[in-house]
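Example complex used in Figure S2.
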Amino acid sequence: MDFLTWGINPWRQPVLTHISWDLFWASLFAGLMFLVAHASYMILAAHRKRSAEETDAMEAVYKDLPHQIERHTLMARLFHWVMAAAMFVLLLTAFLPIAGIRFAWVEWHWIAGLVLTGSIIYHVIHATFFLDFWSIWIGPKDIPELKAEILRGLGRDVPGPKPGKYPLGNRLYHMASVVVGLAAAVTGILMMSRIRTPLVPRNPYLFSDTTWGITYLLHGAAGVALVGLVIAHVYFAVRPEKWWITKGMILGWITRRDYLQHHDPDRWKLRERKAPTAAQF
Amino acid sequence: MAVIRDVMPAFELFQPATVDETLGLLERHGADAWIMAGGLDTFDWLKDRIKRPSVVVDLSQMQELRGIREAGGRLEIGALTTLTEVAEHPLVRMQFGLLAQAAELVASPQIRNQGTLGGNVSQDTRCWYYRSGWSCYRAGGNICYADSPTAINREHAILGASRCVAVSPSDTAPALIALGAEFVLRSGAGERVVAAEDYFVGPEIDITRMTARRPDELLTTIRVPAAFAGAQFYFEKVRDRQVWDFPLVNVASAMRLSGGTIQQIRLAVGAVAPRPLRLTEVELAVTGQPRNEQTAAMAGELATVGAVPLRHNGYKILLMQNLVKRAVRGGPLRGDGA
Amino acid sequence: MAEHRFIGQNYTTPDLVAKVTGKAKYAEDFRAEGMLFAKLLLSPMPHARVSRIDTSAALALPGVRAILTADDMPEPADSVDDTGRVIRANRRAERALTNEPLYEGEPILAVAADDELTAAEAVERIQIEFEPLPFAVDPLVSLRPGGPAARTEGNVWFRPPTPPAEPSQPPPPQPPIDVRDLKWTAEQFAEADEGRLPMGEVLDEWEYGDLEAGFTQAALVLDETFVTSNTSHQPMETRTSMAYWQNGRVYVHCSTQSVVQTVAAVSRWLGIPQTDIVVVSEYTGGGFGSKITSAISLVIPALLSKKANAPVMMRLTREEEQYVGRSRPSLHARIKAGFSKEGRLLALDFFGISESGPYEGGQDHNTSGRIVSLLYQPVAMRFRGLGVMSNTPPRGPQRAPGGAQGVAVMEPVLAKAADRLGIDQVAIHRINAPEGKAPIGGPLPQGGRAHVTSAFVKEALDKGRELFKWEERKARSGQRTGSSVRGIGVAVSAYSAGSIGFDGLFVIKPDGKVYIQSGIGNHGTESVIDVHRVVAEVLDVSWEKCEITWGNTGKHMPWTCVSGGSQTAHAMTRAAHATAMDARTKLQEIAAKTLGGSPASYRVAGERVSGPGGSLTLAQAAQKAIELGGKYDGHGAPENINAFTKRSVAALAGQGLLAVARDTYPRDGISNSYVAGFAEVEVDLETGQYRVLDYLAVADVGTVLHPRSVGGQIMGGSLQGIGHAMTQKWVYDQQYGVPLAKRFYQTRPATILDAPARMEWAAVDIPDPETPVGVRGVGEPPVGAGLAAVANAVADAVGHDVFRRFPVTCDVVLTSLANGRRVTDPLTANI
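Predicted assembly (1450 residues):
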C-alpha cells in the first residue's frame, strides 16, 4: 500500500497530490475493527463498573444538589450538533465519491467546511470566554484516572479517582478532534483558492507545489483520521453505559446520580453556580 | 524519471472481431484496457505516453458495429460507422440532416474518413493543460491549470464548470442530443440504453471521465428516433480554422413548427461546458412562441444565464447567445436588418 | 516574353514524378548498414541548470549503444571569412545539446539505440534533475523594472566595442556579441496600461529627414500599437538527419534549403574541415527559412555516430520540431505616422520590439524598419528597435523575416489613414509606393541612403486594381446584408530578392548532353532546376538534353548561394548565365580552332556551333574539348571562382567541355521584389468569423522565370500570410513558461482548405534592369501582402477599431464590435 499519491507538474517535477485513498479504507477498517473489538470485549470480558455503594454514599453527602445538573448550555449543544452535521456532510461528500458513489459533492463539501470552520471559531471564543476553558484539557493530573480506567477495563475493581466535568475518554477524544479538526479546517480554507467559489478568487498558485502538497496531505490525512474518530465517537455515543452522556448532549443536563457516579465533585464544582431550572429549556 | 513524448510505448494489442470477444477482453482486463476506435484521440494519448494502458483493444476489425440501418423510422448507427459515412449516408442526409451537417464539420476529410461516430461522442477533452500530461484534476490531481490568474483559457468553459473548466469537444454530440438519440451500451452483464444527454458526465460528478460508459462497457449503437425525422434543423460550428479544428462553440436544434409557432424543439450547445448542454429551459421558454426575432433574442439571453467567463473566454457568452438565436431563428440574420 | 524559348515557359521539373509518387528519398528514407536511432531528452523547464544526470539505468537497457551530452559538444570555434578576416565565435551561441536549457524543449542529451522504442525507453529511465532559474516568456515582462531575464547575464544582445589596433598590427577582430540586461522604467510602462506599447531604451536606431517638420505639416497623425504573433515554420518534413563516418569523412543526410552552403555550416558546428564533409539532401520537405543551412540538431547524430561507431538516424517528431524547428519572432510595434491630406506619408516614427528567443537571430525588427522605409517611402523616418530575449524556442528567419511583420503593423495604419482622410486604399498605397531606384533603410555610414535596383509597385497596384475589379467591389464593401458585411483590402509588400557573385558549373559531354551541376537545395521552390533553364536558353539546347545533378556535395557542385532571402533565382540565374556564356565562348573558340576563322564568327544555336568553317555538334565540340584539355575540359580553371568550385572542377575535369564561371555582372542597387495583395472578406457579425472570398496577388518579381513555380511561391506565400492574419500563433503559459499550443491543431497554420475560395496571381513581368536575365526572387514578399490585405479587408468591413494584434480571430472581432472598441489584451505575448 502506498501512503502518498504523486503527480507531475508542468516542469515534470514530482508533486505530492494527496494521500493515498487506500488510507481511507484503512481508517474505515480500523474504526470498524475497533468497534467490533471493543463491543466484543465489553460483552465477553469482565469489565468492571464502579460499585453502586460508592455512589450511594455520595448521594447522601450531596443531597442539596438539584436532580438535573446542567452539563451543556444550549449554545454549547447547538455548536456540537451543528458541527456534527457539518462533519457528516464533510465526510460523506469527501469519501462517498472515493468509494465510487458519484455525485456533485464539491459545493456541499466546501459549504459544510465553512459551517464547520464557523462553528469552530464560535466554539473557541465561547469556550475561552464563557466556559471553563481548562475543563476539557488533559494534563499530568489525569494520570491516576487513566491508570484506574485502564485497570477497570482490565477487570479489576478500582476505586476513584473520578474526572471533573469531562471523563478522560471525552477529553482525549476532544484533544484528537482539536488537532485533526483544525488541520482539516485550516487546510480546507486554503484549498478553497484551488476551486471556484464566489468567496475567494481562484488562484492555484497561491503557494508552491510543495506547500500545496503538504496542505493536501494534511487535509487528506485529517479527513481519513476523522473517519476513524467519528466512527468511534458515534459508537460510544450509542453504547448503553455512555448513554447518559449522549442524553446530556441532547437535553443539556444529567441526573445528580450520574453526576456523582461519574464525576469528582471537587474537580467539577457546582456550588458556585446556580442549579439549572426547567425554565432554561 | 525523464519524460519523453511523441513515441508510442509498447502495449498488448487485441483486435477482436465480435462484440462478445470485445466484452470478454474488457471484462478480463478491466480498467487496464483501452478501447480504440478510429484512434484519433487514442494515438495522441499513447504517443505522448501520458495514458499508458497495458492493453489496447482496437475495434477496427469489428464489422458488426459499422453501418447505418433503418428500423421502423428510426436509425440504428453502429458506433464504428465513420463520420464520412454518417455525413454521406442518404438516410441521414434526408431525414436527419442535422447529424449529417455536424459530422461533416468535424475536423478534416482525412479525420472524418478514419474517425467514428462512437469515437466522436466518446472522445476526451482537448484542454491543452490536461493534454500536456500534467496532474490536473481531470488527470487525478488537485489543480486546474486552466483557471488561474494567468491561464490561457480562450477555449474553455463558461458554463457547468466544477473545478475543471475543460469543454466537451464533440460536434456530433449536440446534434444527437437535439435529435433525442439514445446510446446503447453493452457489457458482460447485459445492455443498457441511455439518452444522449445522459451519456455525458460533468466534472462535478466524475472529473476524470467525460461519459457514463463504464470501463467494462462498449458503446455499440447510436439510435436516432423517428421523432424529429425531417424536422427543421439548424447546426452551426464556429471555429478558428475552417478545417481541422475543434469548435469554439457549436449549436444544434431540431424543431417542429405549426404555422409560425414553435411546437416542439430540442436544442443543444457544445464546447461551452464540460459536457454538451441540452438547453431545456430555453426549449420550454420558446415552445408555443412564434418563431421570430424576439423569441430568438429571448432564447439567446436565457441560454447564457449563469455563465461565468474566464479571463480569455468572455466572447463565448456572446457567441453562444448568437448561435442559440440562430438555432431558434433558423439561420443568420438576413436582409438589411441592423 | 515571346522571344524566350525556355524562360517564362512552363515545363515539368525532373524531380516531380518522384515527389508525387513517393519515390523521392528524403533524409528519413535513407538507411545504412548497422544504423542506430537516436532519441532526445528535452528540457522540461524554460530556464534551468542540469544539476544531476544518472544514465546508468538507461545504459543498462539492452540495445542502448551510446549517450551524448552537452559535454560532448565542440566549443564554438572562430572562423575566417573569404577575405581572411577572423570572425570570433559567440561563446553563448546555441549548441545542439546544453546543460543550461534556455527554453522548454531544448535538447539536453541524446540516446542512440538499436531502435527508437528502446531509445525512448532509455530516455525515460534517465534520472535527471534540474535547478529552475528565472525565466521570461514575454519581452515586455522582461523589460519591466525588476523583471526576469531570459539568460543569467541579461535579456538583450549587444556588441562590445572593438579594441583599438596596436601600432603596426592588423586591426583586432570584432569581439563577438554578448548579453546584457536592459530594463525600462516604471514611468515608461505607464502607457502599457492604456494598451499602448511603452517606448524605453533601444539598441537599434536610425533616422533620416525632418521628422518634427513632417508631423507639423501632417493633416492626420495616427499613433497605433500592433502586435504580431510568433509563428513556427512547421515544414511538413521535420529536421531529421542521419550521419555516418567513413575514412574520417562525415556523410550527413539532412533536410536543408541549401545543399552546398550546408557544408560550411556543418564544418562550423562540428569543427572539422569542409573537405571532410559530404552533405546529401535530394529532397527537402519545406523550410521557409528554418533550414537555410539545415539545422544545428544534425550535430547530434553526427557526434553520436562517432561515439557509437555506427550510423545514427535521428528522426524528429512533430513535437520536437515545434521546439527546435525555429519560429518567426513576434513584433510589438508602436507607429506614429503623419499623413498629408492627399495621403502622403510625411513622417514615420517606427518603434518595434522583437521577441527574439534565447539565442542570436530573431532581430527581425531591423528588417521591418528597412522594408517599411522602402514600401511607403516616408519623407522623414525614425526607426527604433530592440530584440528582447525570451525563454521560448530559438527564432530564425521565416519567409520575409521582419518584412512580413513590418507590413503587418504598418498596413492597418495606412488603411486607417485612408479611411480617415477619405482616400481610396489603392490610392494611398500608390501615392507612397517606391518607384525605380527607390531609397531603402537608414543613412549609410558614408552618407546618403542605399537604393533598390528597381521597383514597379505602381504598375502592380494598377494591374491589381484592374484584375481584381477593385472599383466594382468597393461599391459593395461595407454594405450589410443581415449579419454579414463585406470588406476589401489592399496591401503592398517587399523583400530582398537576390544576391550576386556565385559560381555555375556544367559539362557538355561527348554524348551531346549538358550535365548541369546544381548546388541549390530542393525545398519546393524549384529554383534547383529552374535557374538552369537559362543555360538551355543561352546555348539554345533542347531541355531534354539537359541533365541536372543535385542534392549531393559528393557529386561536385559549384559554390552556390544559400536559398534564403529569395536570393536563388536571382543569384543563380546570373551564375547560370555567366557559365552559359563561358560555354558559348569555349564552343566558339573550339569551333574556330577546329574549323578555322575567328571565334566571334561562330554562332551557338540549335545544339551546334556554326560559322564560316562549317559546324560542330555539341557532342563533337565536347570531344574536341577533351582533346584540347586545359580550360576546355576543366584541367584549368579561372582564378576568380570559389575554392569549393575549384575542387569540383578538378573532380569533373576531362569529361567534356567544362563550363564554369563566377557571376561578375555589375549591379546598381539592392535587389528587392514586391507584391500587391488584394483581398475581399465577408465578416459574420453574429459570430465574428470571416472568410476570404477572393484573393489576388500581383507580383513585381522581374522576369517570370517559370510561371508555375512563381505561381506556387506566390500562392503558397500568400496563404502562409493569410494564416498569420487569421489563425496561426503561439500560446505560452505564463506561470510555468511552457508552450500550450504544440500541435498543428493548436498552432493553427493555414491548411489548403483554408485557402480563399478564389485565389489568383499575376505578375507585371518587367525585367529587372540590373541583372542579365531580369529575374528577381519571389519567395518572400507574398507573405506580408497576404497577411495585411486580409487584415485591411476586415478593418474595411467592420471598422478600424477592432483589432490590434494578430491573428485576428473571431473572438476579437465579436468582443470589439460588442464593446464598440478594442478590448482584447493588447500587449501580453503568446496568448
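The CA atoms of residues 235 and 280 of chain A lie 30 Å apart. The mean pLDDT of chain A is 84.
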